[in-house]
């Protein structure tokens, strides 16, 4: 799907759709789920994340939160991008997203709806919102890749 990153109303629409009707919100609480809790010290964002992985493939990505539009939408879109991918491919998607958010070189063609956050680097006060859930998914995936990393 082609996205017009130069149309702020289109980008806002993507964010608002994922905020008002998140598709991946709701925890399974299955015993096989890997979970993590992320909370911001400076705002309302409080997110519980869950991944179900089998044979190095992300079968399900879910979250539950109290959060702003940016944190909810970025977590929902990332869950959408992660499902069906291998752990390594999921980490590559996250790395590419972080590169965009932190204004470093990235591959726009691999962002899909994550391109909605293309201007976050220009809003430093919103970077934490755009990364809090994604950082949780990254931590879970890294721990699954190398269980000795677990905190």
Q: What's the number of extended β-strand segments?
A: 3
> How many domains?
1
What is the CATH architecture assignment?
Alpha-Beta Complex
Report the C-alpha radius of gyration, rounded: 14 Å
The biggest beta sheet reads:
3 strands, antiparallel
Order of helices and strands: HEEEHHH
Distance between the termini: 38 Å
CATH class: Alpha Beta
Would you give the CATH topology? Sufe protein. Chain: A
The secondary-structure class comes to alpha+beta
Spans of 5+ residues with little confidence (pLDDT < 50)? none
In DSSP terms, counting alpha (H) and pi (I) runs of 4 or more, how many helices?
Answer: 4
Overall 3D geometry?
Answer: globular
Q: What share of residues are in beta strands?
A: 15-25%
Please list the strands of the largest sheet in the order they lie side by side. 1-2-3
Mean of residue pLDDT?
92
List the helices and strands and how they pair.
Elements: H1 8-20, E1 34-39, E2 46-54, E3 57-66, H2 69-82, H3 87-101, H4 127-145
Domain NIF system FeS cluster assembly NifU N-terminal: 13-122
Organism: Spiroplasma poulsonii
GO biological process, one term: iron-sulfur cluster assembly
Describe the 3D structure.
By secondary structure, the protein is an alpha+beta fold. It has a single domain (8-145), classed as Alpha-Beta Complex (Sufe protein. Chain: A), CATH 3.90.1010.10. The chain has 4 helices and 3 strands. It has helices at 8-20, 69-82, 87-101, 127-145, and strands spanning 34-39, 46-54, 57-66. It has a 3-stranded antiparallel beta sheet, with helices on one face. Helix 1 crosses helix 2 (69-82) and helix 3 (87-101) runs antiparallel to helix 4 (127-145). The protein is globular. The protein starts with 7 loop residues before the first helix and ends in a 6-residue tail after the last helix.
């Amino acid at each position: 799907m082609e996205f017009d990153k130069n149309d702020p109303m289109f980008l806002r629409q993507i964010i608002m759709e994922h905020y008002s009707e998140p598709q991946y919100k709701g925890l399974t609480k299955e015993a096989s789920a890997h979970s993590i809790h992320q909370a911001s010290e400076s705002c309302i964002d409080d997110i519980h994340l869950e991944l179900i992985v089998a044979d190095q493939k992300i079968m399900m990505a879910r979250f539950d939160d109290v959060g702003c539009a940016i944190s909810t939408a970025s977590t929902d879109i990332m869950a959408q991008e992660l499902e069906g991918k291998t752990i390594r491919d999921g980490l590559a998607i996250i790395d590419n997203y972080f590169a965009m958010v932190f204004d470093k070189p990235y591959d726009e063609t691999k962002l899909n709806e994550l391109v909605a956050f293309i201007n976050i680097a220009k809003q430093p006060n919103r970077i934490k919102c755009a990364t809090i859930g994604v950082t949780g998914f990254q931590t879970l995936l890294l721990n699954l890749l190398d269980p000795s990393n677990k905190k």
